[in-house]
Amino acid sequence: MVVVTGQNKVSGNPDDAMSSSDAEDDFQEPATPTATQAGQALPLLPQQFPEVVPLNVGGMHFTTRLSTLRRYEDTMLAAMFSGRHYIPTDAEGRYFIDRDGTYFGDILNFLRSGDLPPRERVRSVYKEAQYYSIGPLLDNLEDIQPLKGEKVRQAFLGLMPYYKDHLERIIEIAKLRAMQRKARFAKLKVCVFKEEMPITPYECPHFNSLRFERSESETKLFEHHCEVDVSFGPWEAVADVYDLLHCIVTDLSDRGITVDHQCIGVCDKHLINHYYCKRPIYEFKITW
């Protein structure tokens, strides 16, 4: 028998009693976790790869050993196939890499046996090696032509102030003049000089130096700007004016710009006494 006392009697005051809906809410079972919640709670299992890995690189198919892809630990390929990252597969089950596969065979050949590509493919393979972060391949490619020569060339151009800015100025001036004149070509004057100070029959550099020992006041007497569109120089290196001209033409040609140049004289600006500028001036013809 259950005895109900007055103290346990439910009061009619709503503030002193819990409603039936509140009671039901308190005793509801926990909701089933959603898929998103479950994914956050449970870590994903590492992806497993077979010993022989079929690959689809930008639509080109390759097959190699898993150990080949993991040859060097610090590469992107080793990280991709470490199991820590998910690699999608195509309809045939090949692991897909969204990259042009034209030179991927050269990448695999180096990972397999250290083979290097032929000279005509060195630049393109170097670009792919940069993408996949294959340091040993990059080091090997930098020691052979044409990259070895390019490395030396860039070291020389590093001595040239505002070299890239001057190249852009040549392009912009030539483009503007061609459009204004409604012509397929444009001409502009370019000064390329190695020595900072002028050389005349009355003055020669001492001790094979490129600079002259002058006071600051004397130096200002020789400061001027030649009447040209773009001026390169001065610089201190063994490479001469013709080396820099070759670099300028090469870099413009690499951007698809046809350029012819010829020396049309020297700057005849009078400086002081018997000193004249005498910096060589070249005419550049840019054809679009």
TrEMBL record:
Cell compartments where the protein resides: Cell membrane; Cytoplasm, Cytosol
GO BP annotations listed: membrane hyperpolarization; protein homooligomerization
Keywords (A to Z) from UniProt: Cell membrane, Cytoplasm, Membrane
GO cellular component, one term: cytosol
InterPro entries: BTB/POZ_dom (IPR000210), BTB_KCTD7 (IPR057891), KCTD7/14_C (IPR057890), SKP1/BTB/POZ_sf (IPR011333), T1-type_BTB (IPR003131)
Ranges of residues in domain BTB: 51-149
SUPFAM superfamilies: POZ domain (SSF54695)
Keyword flag Protease: no
Ranges annotated as biased composition (Polar residues): 1-11
Signal peptide (residue range): none
Principal subcellular localization: membrane
Region (Disordered) location: 1-35
Full protein name: BTB/POZ domain-containing protein KCTD7
